[in-house]
Design goal:
about 70% helix, 11 helices, mainly alpha, about 260 residues
């Protein structure tokens, strides 16, 4: 007889495989519930990196370590270059017919759409701007000026670019979009690379006192919701005729853009 833990594990794996969007929502709800029921967990983890006795002006001393500062710059650079490459891919799709055939429209829609919706609108455009959660270094628990707020509780004192959720952790998690569109033989090594990058960049933000554990984990979960939802929308539900119309529209735009530069007969 199969043991109960194995049965539960197999059931969870089957659910995640057959209904990935629902599984991502369930995971987000679970992680959010733990963060709300046990807000002290965020404080306990942040306290591991808090050393006010070393330098009262820098209670999270790791934020001054050159190697970690360079790592943060690298993390922002990766997301920045990914955004630039998305823009270049769109331009190539519009103005270069040969390249257009090499860039599947659904893949491009998925990568660009998840970037714009996830790290762009949901995280940095909405939650970080309007939720008001102070960062650990800004919270009174760690000597800052503002009251600690649990995850998902709006109304904190932070006015803009706040702690919840982590923008850089979310940006690192968005790179999972590349796993969805990569050739099958590259997916496992690429997945391992992206997961390692997510963990490294996210841990780096936590040791700086810039984010709580729940900022990171919920940021990851939200990206999974966006990725699995957009996958269902673009790769499963979007009709071929709509994709063909998008291609035709891009071709018209491309023709209009290059026409002024063509020599006149």
């Amino acid at each position: 007889m199969q043991r109960l833990p194995e049965t539960i594990r197999d059931a969870v794996a089957a659910f995640a495989t057959t209904r990935p969007f629902a599984a991502a929502l369930a995971l987000t709800a679970f992680v959010s519930g733990v963060a709300l029921v046990f807000p002290g967990l965020d404080i306990a983890v942040a306290r591991l990196f808090w050393f006010p006795g070393v330098d009262p002006h820098t209670p999270f001393p790791a934020e001054n370590w050159p190697a970690l500062l360079s790592l943060r710059q690298a993390g922002m650079a990766v997301t920045r270059w990914a955004t630039i490459l998305c823009i270049l891919a769109i331009l190539a799709k519009i103005v270069a017919p040969l390249l257009a055939r090499m860039l599947p429209t659904r893949d491009l829609l998925f990568v660009v759409g998840t970037l714009a919706l996830g790290p762009g609108l949901l995280v940095n455009g909405f939650l970080k701007e309007f939720w008001g959660r102070p960062r650990p270094i800004e919270s009174t628990v760690f000597g800052g000026p503002w009251t600690f707020m649990p995850a998902w509780i709006p109304g904190g004192d932070c006015p803009t670019n706040c702690s919840f959720p982590s923008g850089e952790a979310s940006g690192a998690a968005w790179l999972l979009a590349l796993v969805f569109v990569a050739p099958q033989r590259w997916r496992k090594p690429l997945l391992a690379l992206v997961l390692a990058w997510m963990a490294t960049i996210s841990a780096n933000r936590m040791v700086f006192g810039s984010h709580y554990l729940s900022d990171v984990l919920i940021g990851w979960c939200l990206m999974l919701v966006v990725l699995t939802g957009m996958r269902e929308l673009i790769f499963v539900r979007l009709p071929d005729r709509i994709v063909d119309r998008i291609d035709a529209g891009l071709a018209i735009i491309g023709e209009a853009m290059v026409k002024p530069f063509r020599p006149r007969p």
